[in-house]
Amino acid sequence: MNSLENNHFLTSILEGFVDGILILNLQSDLVYANTPGTRICQHLTHSENTLPDEVLRSCDALIESRELYGDRPLVIESEVTNDQSQTFRIRVQWLKLDDLQQPSLLVRLEDQQQGLQSLAVTEAKKYGLTPREAEVWFLKRCNLPRKEIAARLYITIDTVKKHLGNIQSKKQAHQESWC
Prior knowledge:
Layout: H1 3-6, H2 8-15, E1 20-24, E2 30-33, H3 35-45, H4 53-69, E3 75-81, E4 87-95, E5 104-111, H5 112-127, H6 131-141, H7 146-153, H8 157-177
Antiparallel strand pairs: 1-2, 1-5, 3-4, 4-5
């Protein structure tokens, strides 16, 4: 692709991110995409080597803002939901790398559900939740109503209420132990 691929140190760091990372030039041509970035783009477009429209719109907005804001640091944020109700946050900002001749656009694609899942796993460990409580907690973190949690986990609404009560008790006990 370009000299960025020859910078093995930088590409190994970018490949280690959970978030999708895209680097585009000012003509919105893809210069680099890490593996999660490629996967997320495929989720959003259902094709290979195609950038999602919302990514292109966000990049265009950043380029157009240059006339108003000059070289001031600026981040354009957007969200897009695919046909499977997965929500992705898009963040675009300027990037200046020595390996590239002109300023580029750094696009970060965050899978909101994956972020919530990571948070729920961390909290489950912190509060000492059982595996089933952790499942309930993750779905609750995704803002699902009790009825939907019950349906997804094949349990009754009363069982969901019981688990949520236990989770709240464990959270409260953990918070009190820190006081």
